[in-house]
Amino acid sequence: MRIVIGSDHGGFELKQQLIEHLSAQDHNVIDMGPDTPDAVDYPSIAFKVSETVAGNKGDLGILLCGTGIGMCNAAGKVRGIIPALCTNEFMAKMARKHNDANILCLGARVIGLELAKEIVAAFLCNEPQMEDKYVRRRGMIDEYERDLTL
Ligand code: RB5
């Protein structure tokens, strides 16, 4: 799977660890930065990763910052992106199955590496199972977004 990943300084170390972990599983990991732990404003990375996923140059995305909140806020502004901030496996599973989320947001100051690996695994291995009601609700979000940007 092509996984697009990015972080700010708060998520940098966990990003590097997840890249190593996912690469060892033969995923194609596309690292959108940063390359150093120096401070970087999270929206710039969130937009890069989100636009790459929205442009179908990656299958799913992972964004990390201190809490995951800033990344989730920024990613949600990109048309075609449904971000999900997850702190456990159940949230990650449901984000894929019922929300059709395409970017997972993680808080590196909230969870540790082992839990992050479990959450990522749940996000990657579950497919959307969109019953009519979930499609309708997702469609309401898309429609609102479309009306806003007309
Ligand atoms: C950076 O200090 C921190 O604000 C950022 O990583 C993130 O938690 C924002 O939501």
Description:
The protein is of the alpha/beta class and 150 residues long. It has one domain (2-147): 3-Layer(aba) Sandwich (Ribose 5-phosphate Isomerase B, Chain: A). It has helices at 12-24, 42-54, 69-75, 89-97, 113-125, 132-149, and strands at 2-7, 28-31, 60-65, 83-85, 103-107. It has a 5-stranded parallel β-sheet, sandwiched between helices. Strand 4 (83-85), helix 4 (89-97) and strand 5 form a beta-alpha-beta unit. Helix 2 packs across helix 3 and helix 4 (89-97) runs parallel beside helix 5 (113-125). The longest helix is centred in the C-terminal third of the chain and has 18 residues, at 132-149. The radius of gyration is 14 Å and the shape is globular. The termini are far apart. 37% of the residues are buried. The model has no long low-confidence stretch (mean pLDDT 96). The chain binds D-ribose. D-ribose binds next to helix 3. D-ribose (RB5) binds at residues 8, 10, 42, 65-67, 69-70.
